Amino acid sequence: MTGAADFIVVGAGSAGCIAAAELIRRATGSVLLLEAGPTDNSPLVKMPFGLVWMMGNARRDWCYKSAPQQHLGGRQLNVTRGRMVGGSSSINSMVWFRGRKDDFDNWQVPGWSWADVAPAFEAVEAKLTPSRMEGAHPLSEALHSLFPAHGTSPPSPEYESAGVFAFNMVAGRRRSAADGFIKPVPPGLTLVTGQEIDRVIFKGDTACGVRLSDGTELRAHKGVVLSAGAIGSPSILMRSGIGPKADLAGMGINVRHDAEEVGANLHDHPAAGLHFVGPGSGYGLTLSQLPGWALALFQYLSTRRGRFTSPTVEGGGFFNARGRDAVPDVQIHFIPIMRGWEGKRYVYGSGYFADVCVCRPKSRGALRLTSRDPQSAPEIDLGLFNDPSDLDTLVAGLVRLRSLMEQADFDDHRAREAFPGPAVQTDDALRAHVRDCGATAYHPVGTLRMGKGNAPVTPRLSVSGAKGLWVADASVMPAVTSANTNAPSMMIGYRAGEMISEDCA
What we know:
The radius of gyration is 22 Å and the shape is globular. Strand 11 and strand 12 form a beta hairpin. Helix 5 packs across helix 13. By secondary structure, the protein is of the alpha+beta class. 26% of the residues lie in helices and 22% in strands. The chain has 13 helices and 26 strands.
């Protein structure tokens, strides 16, 4: 492994791959791209349905757990994060949404309005070519009947709409940030896997490299870019001495810069769903479907078609939880596959699942170190429902979701609601359902928000209180976007390449 480069990018994930590629393309200097996990060279990574086996796989998923959530009866939730080349874009369901235009305008951060970020989205999409899924299940195709005025185009968070989603898949295969931007690896970029970062090292107040968990030190002539995600980047920064003074000093970490907001503002899209079960409905493990599953792998390998091209989440929509106007405040994720609700991985039967998640949650949590050891997971308090209005919106969304599922033109594929079941009708009963079964959409953001004043990161993505140190990932979002966050994370990586190249020219 080379011991030095002009730039070190920490994390070959959704944003990191693109930031590194853009630094190379713009001739800013050599780049060493470090990834803690393995390569993405696995058939299960490339096969869309393979995410069923990738999520929870400790080799390719960080397998984080949240802190006990006060408003969920003390339950700990899975916090799935990709741990391989491509990051979460190599393990997610590939749903592609930019978000709403006013998501970015509402950030009120110079350089990050919709007009500023739209060209970056276009540049990323030119490489990844996301498009509406082909070969979706008839149940997923029927979702457009919920809001037929918008036809069969992919839905949009800008207005009430439903249907089959757009995905970053090409010819039945996943197309991650790594696939689109660093394959083949461009000259001047060195990709190294299996390297976990302890901390950033400094010369004075300037970042000059990183220290690996095994003690190896690597040098960066121009600077370091943290792209380890909303969990990893603030953890590295705090181990490097930048964070809340009292917390760091209590762990024996030399405080380089007292930054109270590092790790704060953690939030995610809270979600809860409905399970439907019935013969002839969705995919599942039944005697009648065994031949289909037996042929599915052969069909996928020979034609890149069939049920193994399903990313599980095939469609959904956006609607107003209370139905009072046309401005969506919740999102549906629809899975035309039988899912158990008792914690079992495999269950008998056929069915489908639809959840509803809050687009713009107000609740906030925080991330804190539990140890200065880089191999110790941090405390991840998502703070779900700390603001009770989020729970109000989610419950209202569940009520309307039920109504929409009854209206959908599912024909012979319609199934009955099996859980929580029609007996769970009152708001109090639905609140209990959320408390017992609610989770998130795996979209953690915000732990290194960018902005002015006391924000940990400036609008130019540099870390406050340091030189030659930038952040490029979902941690910099002041507020989560109104839909799935993978596309915005890639946009942030692209903007990072732009800004760092300009500032280092």
